[in-house]
Write a structure and sequence with these properties.
Blueprint lengths: L1 H6 L4 H32 L11 E10 L6 E8 L3 H17 L9 H20 L3 H22 L4 H30 L4 H6 L7
Antiparallel strand pairs: 1-2
Length: about 200
């Protein structure tokens, strides 16, 4: 959707309608998945852990961070915790796109591309079952958000974008160090392995 909006960036109305269509379709799909997940949970009386993945889309092992480092996997799945975050993101994103005619201006195609990219990265972050992959997608979300704030923000948008960049850079580096420390102790970046780890370093 973001690429298509960039292709029609000269046509303001087409870009907005295209973004709205993409978001409505995604919201409809997200609603169906959330409904099916909720119905499955009620039918499965033996399942008590909401954090266990129930719908897995992708599960690829990417190897280790170092020779004896923690394992990294590109695991995209839905569970009882993130499915509602996904639904909320799609609902809010649809509302933002619907109101975009008031703030997008003449470069609506670029604005819609940034907005759809931010929403897409947010969804991938929520659906990531690997802590390091979650961090990567979360940081990627900040790139289109930075552009949205800097180009379509209020009167002090450039100052706001600079402050956001500095704050997120500092917070992101601290978060990365913490994730690497936790992953090194657990031996894996997956949420399941972290939940089962006692976090006792060897030696």
């Amino acid at each position: 959707g973001a690429v298509l909006c960039l292709c029609v960036y000269r046509q303001r109305a087409v870009a907005i309608y295209l973004a709205e269509t993409v978001m409505l379709l995604a919201l409809a799909l997200g609603t169906l998945v959330a409904w099916e997940h909720s119905r499955t949970v009620h039918d499965d009386s033996g399942a008590s852990d909401a954090s266990e993945p129930r719908i897995t889309a992708i599960d690829l092992k990417l190897g280790r961070l170092a020779e004896k480092g923690p394992t990294i996997s590109f695991h995209i799945a839905a569970d009882g915790l993130n499915i509602w975050l996904v639904f909320l993101t799609l609902a809010v994103g649809t509302a933002v796109v619907a109101s975009s005619a008031d703030w997008a201006g003449e470069n609506a195609g670029v604005a819609m591309a940034c907005l759809l990219a931010a929403i897409g990265f947010t969804l991938l972050a929520f659906l990531s079952m690997d802590m390091l992959v979650f961090y990567v997608f979360f940081e990627l979300t900040l790139v289109p958000v930075f552009l949205l704030v800097g180009l379509w923000g209020g009167p002090d948008r450039q100052v706001a974008a600079q402050r956001m960049f500095l704050h997120t850079l500092a917070g992101g580096l601290c978060t990365l160090l913490g994730l690497l420390a936790i992953g090194s102790v657990a031996g894996d970046f997956s949420w399941t392995a972290l939940k089962q780890s006692s976090f006792k370093a060897d030696g």
